């Protein structure tokens, strides 16, 4: 099976969902809801090999608009590889990144279309979710396992990117941002002055005994007052020596 995600080959096999193959290959596809089709973070556009995938699931029919389906939109957590062949898909973050690089103003129209699609599918999406909850399809050990697998896949993607360096993280326009930051002049940074509140004075009780005068002062004891120096008047009488 030849699966290509964001122009990068990914190992996969028949019977796997594209979402699971993406997790195992640490591809940049959303893993938020654990494969339950709730968050649509795993939205992908099938560019080639749509006939190798199983038909749309009820979840995809409920959450994807007719415009998205006509454009090749699928949910990676629901799209199962049915037959051998070549399947080429593009994830939503990568699609946004390419729009920004090729036509930044086109991002406004893209966001408007996605918002309209989401609003259009709120009612059928909620109805589908309620039905699955009533049938007990949203809980159990299998659901917990899917969630843990999603977390592990996301963590693996981050670890792999960090090992390649911070700029390898799957962040849109990271190269452009880094280039702009490197050209910015470094402004002088002045830290604000912090004024500490006035601490209340502490009055210590009078000790029942007096300490001798020390050649230094103790910060936790009241200072001993020294008696002011006083002059003492002394009368000196001088008499001449007696004659022999």
Automatic annotation (TrEMBL):
2Fe-2S ferredoxin-type domain sequence ranges: 1-95
GO molecular function annotation: iron-sulfur cluster binding
Pfam families, per the entry: Fer2
Domain of life: Bacteria
UniProt name for this protein: Chlorosome protein I
Organism: Chlorobaculum limnaeum
Signal peptide: none
InterPro entries in UniProt: 2Fe-2S_ferredoxin-like_sf (IPR036010), 2Fe-2S_ferredoxin-type (IPR001041), Beta-grasp_dom_sf (IPR012675)
């Amino acid at each position: 099976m030849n699966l290509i995600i964001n122009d990068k080959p990914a190992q996969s096999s028949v019977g796997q969902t594209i979402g699971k193959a993406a997790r195992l290959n640490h591809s940049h596809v959303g893993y938020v809801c654990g494969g339950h089709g709730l968050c649509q973070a795993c939205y992908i556009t099938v560019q080639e090999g749509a006939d190798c995938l199983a038909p749309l699931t009820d979840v995809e029919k409920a959450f994807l608009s007719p415009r998205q389906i006509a454009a090749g939109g699928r949910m990676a957590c629901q799209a199962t590889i049915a037959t051998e062949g070549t399947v080429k898909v593009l994830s939503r973050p990568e699609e946004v990144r390419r729009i920004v690089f090729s036509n930044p103003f086109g991002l406004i129209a893209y966001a408007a279309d996605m918002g309209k699609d989401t609003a259009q599918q709120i009612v059928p999406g909620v109805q589908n979710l309620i039905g699955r909850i009533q049938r007990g399809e949203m809980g159990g050990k299998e659901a917990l396992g899917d969630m843990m697998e999603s977390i592990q896949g996301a963590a693996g993607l981050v670890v792999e990117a960090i090992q390649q360096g911070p700029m390898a993280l799957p962040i849109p326009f990271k190269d452009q941002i880094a280039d702009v930051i490197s050209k910015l002049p470094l402004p002088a940074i002045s830290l604000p002055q912090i004024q500490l509140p006035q601490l209340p004075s502490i009055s210590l009780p009078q000790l029942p005994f007096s300490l001798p005068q020390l050649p230094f002062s103790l910060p936790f004891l009241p200072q001993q007052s020294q008696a002011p120096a006083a002059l003492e008047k002394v009368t000196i009488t001088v008499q001449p020596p007696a004659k022999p």
